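G., the chain you wanted modeled:
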Amino acid sequence: MSTKRRIIASLVLRDGIVVQSIGFERFLPVGRADIAARFLDDWGVDEIVLLDIRASAEARRIDLATVEAVAASCRVPLTVGGGIRSVEDVRDLIRAGADKVSLNRAALETPELIGAAAEQFGVQCIVASIDVRRLANGKAHVFADGARRDTGLDAADFARSCATAGAGEILLNAADRDGLRNGYDLDLVEAVANAVNIPVIALGGAGQPSHFVDLLSSTGASAAAAANMLHYSEHSVAAIKSVLRNAGLDIRLDSRSDYRHVPFLADGRLDRRPEAELADEIFEYIPKEII
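Predicted structure as tokens:
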């Protein structure tokens, strides 16, 4: 049986609040992480990734109180990253409520931490986060320091080394598509997915539901992650899952809905469902008992 594809919300933290990132250079404030997580959970995302993008540069770990608040606000699996440098950091984050941890700079500078953490907590807990940019010649290189410094490492080769070291998943961020809403880097995702035998989560470039269809129908990605797009409206997740479902893709579903019935207007926006239909979903009529 094939694994159902996932829709994952990425919450980007900067200076303690969730932001929308554009090119890793411009940031628009969204608000508190726990509130954003609660809404995304209610709207139907399958998992949440919480990333503090300044933690490593500021030589600190992501705030444990923030992790605890987010974990208490959502019921879906939570991946946490930012400034993780030791097995003890991983343990603290798991105790704070994280289901998985994301290693970015540590995967580059101390790759042995991947294996050590996997041995302690299981490979399913360890996600290798890789920021990638394409060079002028089209090659995909791993970038560090907030996707500003070229490491010279080939993205697919580095992903393979992370998987060999013990990572259970790859979070693949196409940094040069961050906030552009022009679609995922499909060639990059496919190259990395072919290089590893662990799940690949694609991030960077999602701007409309069709981009998710393109990704999950033409690459080996196990999950599609998005950040900015999911903050636009409470309809974002429903629209994405409806389009994927009607395209015949096997995705995770809420027990309340299979998403096939979600109606759209001619301009592509979600239509309002009739009140009677909503009432039928919420209330069940039980006739008067005859004694």
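The chain has a mean pLDDT of 90.

Shout if anything looks off.
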